Amino acid sequence: MNVIRFILENRTQVLELTSEHVWLVGLSTAFAVLIGVPLGIVISHRTNLKKIVLASANIIQTIPSLALFGFLLPVPWLGEHSDRLAILALTLYALLPIIRNTYTGIRGVDPAVVEAGRGMGLTEPQILFQVELPLAVSVILSGIRVAMVISVGLATIAAAIGSGGLGEFIFRGLAMVDDRVILAGAIPAAILALIADLGVGWLERRLQPR
Question: Residue 71 and residue 124: Cα distance in Å, rounded?
Fold first, then answer.
C-alpha cells in the first residue's frame, strides 16, 4: 500500500519517466527492426554470411550492459548525449533475436511453396515480399517481442548514465535504501514489459499463416 500511495503522490513524475522509458524502448526497437530484419533476410539467402552476422550479434549480447555504456561514453556525438547512447546500446542488444528469428522464419518456408512461386513466374523480390515474408511474419514478430521485452529491462539500467526512464526511480531507491522508490520504477517497467509481450504476442497470433 505504501508503494501505491507513493506512486499516486508522485504520479506526474512516474508518468514522465514512463513516457521517457517508452520512447527509449520504442525508438531502439524500431532501429533494431530496420537493421535486423534486412540482415536476417540477407543471411537466409546467403548462408555464408550467417556465422559472421550471428556471431557478431551474439558477442554483443555477452557484453554486460553497464560495460557497453562505458565503452560508448567516449564516442564523439554519443557520449555527450546520454539518450543517444542509450538508444544505440539498446538497439545493439535487440538485434540478435530479430536477426535470428527472421532467418529462421524465412528458412522455414516450405521450399515447394517457393518453387511454386517461381513456376508462376514470380521474380526473386516478388517471392520475398509475396511468399517468404508473409509466411515468416509470425516468427519475425516473435523475435521482435523478445527484443522489446529485453529492451524494457535494459532501459532501466540506462538511467545510470542519465538517459532518464524508470531506472531513475530504481537507482534513487537503491541510493536511499527505500523499497517504495525502487518499486515505483520496477512495477511500471514490469507492466510495460507485460504489455509489450501480450500486445506483440496477440499480433503474432493474428498474422500466423493458416
Answer: 41
